[in-house]
């Protein structure tokens, strides 16, 4: 079955950087768009970014555009999220999620999440 | 960006009840709408895609309807495991915005 395992979360100071990674298994990774979604403590879901199956297309949420970069390595079945110029507003659980079909579809499988805390 | 507005923000119900949650988009999204269920400390779980299509493995007491700007999620015959928070999400255009969530609580 589909398994998504995020890693790389932790505590970082404002202005710092962090790189999250998601290891996928149980499906043909190179066929599907992959998303990152985050959830601040006690808050709702915020869509962060998506990358197409071949990595040629990326889209970002307004609050992270220009600071975050999504990338993937199909040979390794991994998708990463490079997060730069972090602020306290970026504190959240970050989920990796598999697109249901194309890059424009919703997501049908999620990882367990990794917590990022931005604090001095 | 497309804004998604859910109502109510919370609802109280009993086992066996029928519950309806609504989601309104700020512009026409055709049928590009999904519904998710989230339990505390867990990742969201896809229930409905393309507004009315039940995801595999999801109980048939869940149903979705609507198109354009107005959508509903209905749970018919609430079960104890259904008490959770529900989110809608539009997939018509990027960013794929979520509604603010509806918390379904036990009466």
Structural key phrases:
heterodimer; A: about 120 residues; mainly beta; seven-stranded mixed beta sheet; four-stranded antiparallel beta sheet; about 50% strand; B: about 110 residues; six-stranded mixed beta sheet
Task: Report what the structure shows.
- The complex is a heterodimer of chains A (120) and B (107).
- Chain A contains no helices and eleven strands.
- With 120 residues, chain A is mainly β.
- In chain A, strands 2, 4, 5, 6, 9, 10 and 11 form a seven-stranded mixed β-sheet that branches.
- In chain A, a hairpin with a 6-residue loop joins strand 5 and strand 6.
- Chain A is globular, with a radius of gyration of 13 Å.
- The model of chain A has no long low-confidence stretch (mean pLDDT 97).
- Chain B has no helices and ten strands.
- The model of chain B has no long low-confidence stretch (mean pLDDT 98).
- At the A-B interface, strand 5 and strand 10 of A face strand 4 and strand 5 of B.
Topology overview:
The complex is a heterodimer of chains A (120) and B (107).
Chain A: E1 3-7, E2 10-12, E3 18-25, E4 34-39, E5 45-51, E6 58-60, E7 68-73, E8 78-83, E9 92-99, E10 107-110, E11 114-118
Chain B: E1 4-7, E2 10-13, E3 18-25, E4 33-38, E5 45-49, E6 53-54, E7 62-67, E8 70-76, E9 85-90, E10 102-106
Parallel strand pairs in B: 2-10
Antiparallel strand pairs in B: 1-3, 3-8, 4-5, 4-9, 5-6, 7-8, 9-10
């Amino acid at each position: 079955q589909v398994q998504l395992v995020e890693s790389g979360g932790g505590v970082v100071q404002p202005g710092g950087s962090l790189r999250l990674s998601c290891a996928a298994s149980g499906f043909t990774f190179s066929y599907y768009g992959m998303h990152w979604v985050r959830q601040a403590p006690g808050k709702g879901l915020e869509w962060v970014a998506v990358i197409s199956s071949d990595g040629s297309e990326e889209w970002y949420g307004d609050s992270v555009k220009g600071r975050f970069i999504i990338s993937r390595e199909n040979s390794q079945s991994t998708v990463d999220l490079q997060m730069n110029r972090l602020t306290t507003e970026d504190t959240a659980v970050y989920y990796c999620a598999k697109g249901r079909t194309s890059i424009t579809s919703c997501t049908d499988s999620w990882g367990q999440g990794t917590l990022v805390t931005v604090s001095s | 960006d497309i804004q998604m507005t859910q109502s109510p923000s919370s609802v109280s119900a009993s086992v066996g009840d029928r519950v309806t949650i609504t989601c309104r988009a700020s512009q026409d999204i055709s049928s590009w709408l999904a519904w998710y269920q989230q339990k505390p400390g867990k990742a969201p779980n896809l229930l409905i895609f393309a507004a009315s299509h039940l995801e595999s493995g999801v109980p048939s007491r869940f149903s979705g309807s609507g198109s354009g700007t107005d959508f509903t999620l209905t749970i018919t015959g609430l079960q104890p495991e259904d008490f959770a928070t529900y989110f809608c999400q539009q997939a018509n255009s990027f960013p794929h915005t979520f509604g603010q969530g509806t918390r379904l609580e036990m009466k």
